[in-house]
């Protein structure tokens, strides 16, 4: 059985027919790999991670996740509990009144009991240096705190594949180091979108560049 978790072949995406974002993009990701993805602003990195979970639809090409071709909404729904996406803007990820409710939402949605969800929330927040923040109002958090809570919502679901869009943006040195340590200790495969090359050098098993709608070696 193949250990390949993700395969993109000849993927094309265009929000405007005259301005394609991805033009024949190819990418593969195997179990245990941590692939870094760099590229200029507007090159399509966020589009690429979003299409993996079906938030953006391709105009042509093959999207295979967890060994199955994905094209319909039902097919993508099946993978969203298994692939955790960290949005570039944490305000797009956080929608509950309190930190604990946001972090518990995913596990509860997957059928975890409330006592177990509370345990997961406490452990995940503690690992990110956010112990005691359970009852804080989400929209009152600082930008860096919001990013950490958004990451907590992803990690709490214990996904098989992590798709992290700028996970260290806005973090101070201490929080950034903590995130690196946590991610380094996780077994999951990861696609790490970042402008932070030193972060990628610490974590990624290989680094690729998105340019001109295609992925190339960095």
The outline comes out as globular
Biggest sheet statistics = 6 strands, mixed
Helical stretch tally: 7
Q: How many DSSP-defined strands?
A: 10
The rounded distance between the terminal residues' Cα atoms is: 30 Å
Summed over residues and divided by their number, the pLDDT gives a mean of: 95
Determine Rg (CA atoms, Å): 17 Å
Parts with pLDDT < 50 across at least 5 consecutive residues:
none
Fraction of residues in H or I helices: 25-40%
Spatial sequence of strands, sheet with the most strands: 6-7-8-3-9-10
Series of secondary-structure elements, N-terminal to C-terminal: EEEHEEHEHHHEHEHEE
Helix and strand content put the structural class at alpha/beta
Itemize the secondary structure elements and their pairings.
Elements: E1 4-13, E2 22-30, E3 34-38, H1 45-52, E4 60-65, E5 68-69, H2 73-77, E6 83-86, H3 99-109, H4 114-127, H5 143-155, E7 161-165, H6 173-184, E8 189-193, H7 197-203, E9 206-211, E10 214-217
Parallel strand pairs: 3-8, 3-9, 6-7, 7-8
Antiparallel strand pairs: 1-2, 1-4, 4-5, 9-10
Helix pairs in contact: 3-4, 3-5
Brief rundown of the structure:
With about 220 residues, this protein is α/β, with parallel strands linked by helices.
